[in-house]
């Protein structure tokens, strides 16, 4: 009959759940430790057929297999702990960034009351007639910044927060777009904006996430610069 053994020791090692008993992890109750393995090996030697004893190489192979399995399990546990420590260390380092500004790949910026915003433009070659259009949440252009010609590379820019009429723009999110003439053709250049870090989140598939004021979360690995 299935599940029945003639060996009392082996039967005694089977996990038996008492009625009414609760276990947090049944798999842990059925795990064989190194001591259990050697007890099973000893029992196997005692029960072997004297006319067909276990060969030395078979015994060594069994011991080696168990040792390798135990080593792999231990290595996996240490790796998990290492990954957890790395995440905790990243979170601790990221927490020091709260209140500071970071440069991130986005075309939006949060304008704080009485302040301005800044960013960075990149061009693969010399660009002429570089212009930055700034739009509010409704899509209306509130101001255009004329930067003239720009050599290959990156260039920082700043908007003081005023509109075309010279009035202070209300606080909130604004969208930026950069147009320039590159190689005789009009192109839109990539840009990055500075944003203020409000808090730090950990866990999940994204790992350490910086929560930016008005812009939501961004992965720590996407940050280009810390001000």
UniProtKB/TrEMBL annotation:
UniProt entry tagged with the keyword Nuclease: no
Pfam families: FlgD (PF03963), FlgD_ig (PF13860), FLgD_tudor (PF13861)
InterPro entries recorded: FlgD (IPR005648), FlgD/Vpr_Ig-like (IPR025965), FLgD_Tudor (IPR025963)
GO biological process, one term: bacterial-type flagellum organization
All copies of domain FlgD/Vpr Ig-like, residue ranges: 108-182
Gene3D superfamilies xrefs: 2.30.30.910, 2.60.40.4070
The FlgD Tudor-like domain, residue ranges: 89-223
Record key words, sorted: Bacterial flagellum biogenesis, Cell projection, Cilium, Flagellum
Region (Disordered): 1-32
Function: Required for flagellar hook formation. May act as a scaffolding protein.
Family: Belongs to the FlgD family.
Protein name: Basal-body rod modification protein FlgD
High-level lineage: Bacteria, Pseudomonadati, Pseudomonadota, Gammaproteobacteria, Alteromonadales
Gene that this sequence comes from: flgD
